[in-house]
Every structure is written in C-alpha cells, then in structure tokens.
Design goal:
This protein is of the alpha+beta class. The chain has a single domain, classed as GTP Cyclohydrolase I, domain 2. Strands 1-2-3-4 form a four-stranded antiparallel β-sheet. The two termini are about 15 Å apart.
Length: about 120
C-alpha cells in the first residue's frame, strides 16, 4: 500500500549559482523530500530507508554544479526516485543565502520524479 514519507531540512553544501562568484565557495542548501513508498508491511526491507533518502539527496547537491535552482531540484528528485522502494519523489530545494540577500523568507524550487504506476 503506498504511503507518504517526509524527510525535511536535509542540509547540504554545494557550488551552484548563475551569478559570478556564486560557485567559488560552497553555499548551504536545504532539501525537503516527500516520497511515496510501498510500505505494505512492518518491514524496513519492503520500503525505503530514510537514511538512504537523506544521503542520496545530500550527494545530489554536493556532487554536481548547476546554474539554476530548478536543475538542482530535478537532480535531487531523480536521484531519490531511484532508491529501491521509492515510487515517487517530490524534492524542494531551498537556497537560504539567496533569500537573505533578497530580504525574503524563502527561495526554493520543486521537482517530482518517479515510477508510480509502473
């Protein structure tokens, strides 16, 4: 039976940005995941382990380098969707430094990937 699993506030440092100098030093990003898993019984082996979800999401931010936030969100959602047990992944990637510079509460992008219906 499909269930929703959330892992929020995953911290990751990455070298991303479109403006000059943004990729020179790592910046902090925060990742929120909403993952649909098939948790039909009370067995960790039949679902996705949230430790793996956090590790994969963090790696997607830390290993690549992209100009726009939307691409980072796409990379995170696609990577997490490949974790065994995951049917779909909605990833929201927040860029706190950009929000601070703009004087706003949040700057984020969202993407969804998965295999629901296969």
């Amino acid at each position: 039976m499909p269930q929703l699993l959330r892992v929020t506030g995953i911290a990751a440092d990455g070298r991303h940005g479109a403006s000059e100098g943004e990729r020179d030093e790592p910046q902090r990003f925060a990742i929120d995941l909403e993952v649909v898993v098939d948790a039909s019984d009370d067995d960790l082996g039949s679902t996705a382990d949230y430790r793996d979800l956090a590790r994969v999401a963090r790696s997607a931010v830390e290993e690549g380098s992209y100009a726009i936030l939307e691409t980072i969100a796409e990379q995170v959602s696609a990577a997490v969707a490949e974790v065994p047990g995951v049917l779909t992944c909605r990833a929201v990637v927040h860029k706190p430094a950009a929000a601070d510079r703009l004087g706003v509460a949040d700057v984020s992008a969202e993407a969804t990937a998965g295999r629901l219906g296969r």
